[in-house]
Specification:
single chain, 271 residues, alpha/beta, 7-stranded parallel sheet, 12 helices, methyltransferase, RNA methyltransferase
Length: 271
């Protein structure tokens, strides 16, 4: 059973995992280096635990102690009970859901390890917006994608905003980072995947015509909001595919486009 510790000093060193959560640059450097990430809200905390992540501690406002009682009883990590005002002082924002947990990261698999047994994967290049990362992971989980590969400059899926937007779906879809981009796409091709680059370019084949759901192994490549996939990534692809647009709309944002494309990739998939 965890120990519940009432804390009334925002500078208490035991709260160090939770300081400055709104400082994106600081947290982006600090969290991977220290091997932690922050789960926010009851559902996300429970999903992180269900996925096997070890809890370092919890930070709860008083009304959430009873709600999280079963977790408190099961986990030996300390629980820090604080007032909403103190939580805001420590984190830098109003913690609406009243419950935060510091979780221990686990080592990522290699790309080659991740591809074993996978048939439908996402490959993201330079998607560095945490909201987009979270939305894409949520769609990938909901629509049955097997895994995600990230270029070195993609945002952290375990950053608090990514986790929150995904509603914990980042814990459901395994992912790995490619160390060299786009060279390491050769690992994907050698594993038997056809690389489909999603682009609004007119010369791209419509995704219906490409019929990705009929292919044995498909890797769908997505680029960052605005610029899309780089020239190097497009050259590395086996085929360019696009989502047909109507009413003069030139493209969808990457989160919406990903959801449409994932459905096309997984529709009719045989188990």
């Amino acid at each position: 059973m965890a120990e519940i510790i009432t804390v009334d000093d925002p500078d208490d060193p035991r709260l160090a995992d939770y300081t400055g959560l709104t400082d994106v640059e600081l947290r982006r450097r600090r969290e991977p280096a220290e091997g932690l990430f922050i789960a926010e809200g009851e559902k996300v905390i429970r999903r992180a635990r269900h996925a096997g992540y070890e809890m370092r501690s919890m930070l709860l406002s008083s009304k959430w102690v009873d709600v999280m009682r079963d977790v408190i009883d099961e986990v030996p990590a300390p629980v820090y009970a604080v007032s909403p005002a103190l939580a805001e002082q420590v984190t830098g924002y109003h913690v609406h859901r009243g419950a935060l947990a510091s979780m221990q990261r686990t080592p990522l698999p290699t790309a080659a390890e991740l591809l074993v047994g996978a048939r439908r994967i996402v490959v993201m290049e330079a998607v560095n917006d945490h909201t987009n990362i979270g939305a894409i992971f949520r769609s990938a989980a909901a629509l049955g994608m097997d895994a995600v590969l990230l270029s070195p400059d993609c945002a952290d899926p375990l950053y608090r905003r990514s986790v929150k937007v995904s509603m914990g779906a980042v814990f459901s879809v395994p992912y790995a980072r490619l160390e060299s981009w786009p060279r390491d796409l050769s690992v994907v091709r050698e594993a038997g995947f056809k690389l489909l680059a999603l682009t609004p370019a007119e010369k791209a084949t419509t995704i219906d015509e490409a019929a990705p759901h009929t292919l044995d192994r498909v890797a769908l490549m997505l680029g960052a909001e605005g610029g899309g996939l780089t020239t190097g990534a497009l050259r590395a692809a086996d085929e360019w595919v696009r989502i047909p647009m109507a009413h003069g709309v030139d493209s969808l944002n990457v989160g919406a486009a990903a959801a449409v494309a994932f459905y096309a990739v997984t529709s009719g998939r045989q188990a």
